[in-house]
Amino acid sequence: MPFLLRNLTLVPGVEESALRPLAAAKLGVRESEITALTLVRKGVDARKKGAIKLVYTVQVTLKDESRVRPSGDLSRVEAGAPLRFPRLASAERIVIVGMGPAGLFAALRLAEYGLTARVIERGRDVDRRASDVSRFWRLGELCEQSNVQFGEGGAGTFSDGKLTTRVKDPNCGWVLQRLVDFGAPPEILYAAKPHIGTDRLRAVVRGIRERLIETGFRIGFESRLTGIGIAQGTVQSIVVNDADEEPCDSLVLAPGHSARDTYALLNELGVTLEQKPFAVGLRVEHPQALINEIQYGRNAHPALPPAEYAQTYNNEATGRAAYSFCMCPGGVVVAAASEAGGVVVNGMSGYRRNGPYANSALVATVGPADFGGHSPLAGVEFQRELERRAFVAGGESYRAPAQSLLDFIGRGGGRILSSYRPGVTEYDLASLLPMPVVATLREGIEHFDRRMRGFISAEATLTAVETRTSAPLRILRGADLQSLSHRGLYPTGEGAGYAGGIMSAALDGIRVADAIAARIAGS
């Protein structure tokens, strides 16, 4: 049985082949006694700027296990129960709406049981989608059905491709391995902060689609859900593009957090929805070299990866929080609108994260008390109003309103340097956002600078407006993962209000697929 050996350290620049003799020395055995060594985890310890180190956990197999005894950093690998997928034969008519992480991984999991489904996506395949997005960024010509929010792969396709999650789920390893199977970098299996990058992620998404087609799934692009047939509170059929109706027994609804027309449809049908808190704000951009210096110190080793950060601030008096979100090292700020007449900003990075700028959402929490209404759709309207204001402020051409960080916090000065396309227009961003949000962001920025000296910089630029941090409502479901009001409807993923990123959305899609398979097996 192999062992798990923790806290092996190397200085940046040293080849990882040095881990084998290091492990042998720590175990007190000859290097030849190690028959196998594989990486389990790799992270950066930058707590001491002058002594940054890489920290590893490895799995080690020995010729003679009796030579060592588990203690301290050494433990035996506890073999978990292998995942088993009974093959199920069923005439169940399953439809999956949405080809983001939740929808795609629900489909992959159903395939493990030998089940198939009809998968529809309102947007286009990832290659045509990339072309549509590029045209928008260059010319300001928005395609409302194929953009950063809509299309194969979901909103995460145009992001940093982060795979971190606070969710403790045994399926995390299964998700990571499947991503590698479809072309993701193998290091996501052991990186402490795994990411794929927007460039690699597109190829992975394409590979998943091809596998699903091979196993019998029917894929439909430019296929928008426009109706759901209901009888006695149970899903009977779906309507696509206001024209084609087809029968459906189980509807896996993975719409993404920007499918506002889908939310309106559900509300009209009486599906149980509730308002949900989320966050809005700005996107902050710094030179990546500055973030590297803040996090690693001066003269950091060039082998270190582009530095990241994650900051939070809580105002106990107001109950509001400010935090950084979706930080993109070496990335760009992108235009992420999905509706005409609105400006939305987001961020993305390639796998190598080798751009000159770092960016992150800088947002503050908002809740039902801010939305100005009791409708489940009030949060949607709250988002929409901010996006329309930003559109007007930018010049009604999808240029983003922007301001130096120093100006925003009242210190004056600073330059506007932004990677955002199709361009920015200087504007007083405080006039766009609700004052409680502005106050919380300003307090948060001061707090972040105390923890990251240099965060407040003349080189930092803010662009507006960041509104699509998470779903503005939740589609309520029960313990069986079906809608509380409509049998056969399985809300899932970020758009349903049950996830917050690629990994957690994929895990939620898996849970729904497992629930459907369990019900079929039980029946």
From TrEMBL:
InterPro entries in alphabetical order: FAD-binding_protein (IPR028348), FAD-depend_C (IPR049516)
FAD-dependent protein C-terminal domain: residues covered: 277-469
Record-given protein name: FAD-dependent protein C-terminal domain-containing protein
Organism from which the protein derives: Geomonas oryzisoli
Species lineage: Bacteria, Pseudomonadati, Thermodesulfobacteriota, Desulfuromonadia, Geobacterales
